[in-house]
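Re: weekly structure request thread

Next one in the queue (495 aa):
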Amino acid sequence: MGPVISWPSTIHWRNLIATALNVSFRLFASSFTPWLSLLTSLGVVAGSAVEAQILLSELPEPPPPVLAVPLPPPPVAAVPLPPPPVPMLRAQAAESRSESGPESEPEPQSTSLVWELVPPSPQSPQPLQPTPPPPIAATPERSLAWELVPSQDNRLAVMSPAQPASQDVQMMGQMLARDNSLRWFLVPEDEVFRPSAALARGEVRPDPPYLPEQPAPLWPKVRGLARGITVNGDPYPDTGLNVPNGFAQDREFTISTTLTATSRTRACRVPAGGDWIDCADSEAYLDFTPFKGEYASLGFQYTIQSLTSRNRGTGQFAGQSIGFRTAFNLTPTTGIAFGGEHIIQLDDTTDLGRNFYLVLSQAVPISRGQNPILLVATAGIGSDFYGFGGNGTLGSTNCLSGNNVTSLNFPEGTDCFWGPIGALSLHLGSQVSIGYEWFGFGIGAGISVRPIKDLPLTFSLYATDFLGNTPSYIEGLCTTNPCEPRYYGRLTMSF
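Done, posted below.
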């Protein structure tokens, strides 16, 4: 018989039942806790998955790739390689989990958006082709029209590039309107046109195309030339016979030769039955201007006072002297000059004075064109001959040496008097001018002409003492009372 369990009498049945229930509950709890944890984990995972699906459904879908399909390109010689395929992006929601114990509260889940590359589809889009530029002739108003001009035998002068070239070939260029590029072709030597070859074949040379004349400047360019001027490079007549102008020497001319003549001197009277040549006088001038610039010049003058041997006059070829002239153009129509005539006297027979001068000239155009009408005014001061008699109102200075006609101690005195001088001339083009001058020794007026337009030859004829005893200080100096008119002329040739 097995062992017999004896219950103590002190154990109360109610306590026994409570103890048994407590043991059973502990055994059941220890075995149920893993299952409860597993169910809780499954609920969390399922909830997260549901939330992720809801988030993924609420996200906007990525836009589809934009494919530009151009117009079919024009045929080209070489087919370009297609560009590499373009990958696309796809979004996917990812979750981040936080570990917690079985008794902790579940934390809210955080989500993020992850993009990943998706391989392109096998059907790659067509490559983009550049749009060809519009041709030049697309704008008719501003387009260029090119044409090929055939030669005399109706063959084009442009040879094929594939034609073999010999050693005697030349290069020629031709602009092609189709692609607006410069292409060079080899042309045989015998097909190159030269004027010498055309003349050798007796061909008639075509007339050159008409070229419009260059418009005349707004303000003419005035330069000096002996006692005359040049306008825009063309010679003009004299501005005065005894009064020089202030313009710089024209660069195209270096030498001017001049002959002057006087019908009679003021103190000479032709006797009855006598010859007027006995009272006439003449001089020769050679103006040499080696230094010439755009706006300035420096030249020298050689003078022979007497070319003839008249009664009681200077001997033939006597009275030789040297002078100078320097001039500056302040503007195209304004000039200033300083110079001297008969300054270095090579003998003691010069009786025309030691004549320094300082003058300012201004040309005023009245018309436009290559040969405009001009009004030329000159004003200044001069010594000795220019300050003769009552004209020497500006006082006296030392004139370097003796034999001065206005000296108070002539001929030994070195003093000379100064007076105002001036001239006014109207140039009616490049061949005729009329003028008036005050040169101290008297008043002169006359005309100056250039008989041959293309030849720098000028002839001038002036009259003086035609106002009688005016100015008043000439009274008593003439052989008649009142003074009778006298004439003096000037012939100039420039080179």
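The mean pLDDT is 77. The CA atoms of residues 158 and 185 lie 7 Å apart.
Next request, please.
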